[in-house]
Amino acid sequence: FESYTFRSGGGPGQGGGAFEDILNSMFGGGMRGARPGAGSAGQFEFDTGGVGLDLDVNVAMSVSLEESVKGGEKRVRLPTGKELNVKIPAGVTEGQQIRLRGQGESAQGHPPGDLLITISIAPHAYFKVEGADLRIDLPVTLYEAVLGAKVRVPTLGNAVELSVPKNTSSGRTFRLKGKGLPKAGGTGDLFVTIRIMLPDGNDAALEALMEKWRDQHPYNPRSGLG
Prior knowledge:
The chain starts with 15 loop residues before the first helix and ends in a 10-residue tail after the last helix. The strands form six sheets. A four-stranded mixed β-sheet has the order 8-9-15-12. The protein has a three-stranded mixed β-sheet with strand order 3-7-6. Strands 1-2 form a two-stranded antiparallel ribbon. It is elongated and about 105 Å long. It has four helices and 15 strands. By secondary structure, the protein is of the alpha+beta class.
């Protein structure tokens, strides 16, 4: 706060108390207290008010993963009910703030405050974000895993084809370099993990095939577990 110093002219019993009453009436009881000085002088401090007035407005905005990478425009609603179109720059990150000058609150005698928009990135339907890298679980059929196949994989850009080798186990992970998120000096990667999916419901032909396979080609994938 700003402080002002006033000195009373009288000594003890010569109007010091009356002077304090006058000051209280002038400043609406805003006197912060008396600090006795040398001799008969008294010092008083006052809060002038209005100093450090915060007119900024803070709001949160959720954007999609694609919007955070490519940028775009979204409409935001302020606490006052006013709505604004906000340009989202490409490459925004979780927790980053966008400042719009002069779009905050206003008060007479003060410049308007700013609008501060804090960005959050909404969870994606199938991509998981790890820093600048992305991860995705890729469902494949049993015959694609056994025989090998070219499988379409979505990315944040155009979809690509992944060559799944023959005899690929569920859980095997492939790295697609440069298919992740932008970062300083380059781009992250996309890690694709294979998940073998069986058909829905009972399949008598598949069950018969597996029974034959079990009897003729038994193996134990859990032998290393002890």
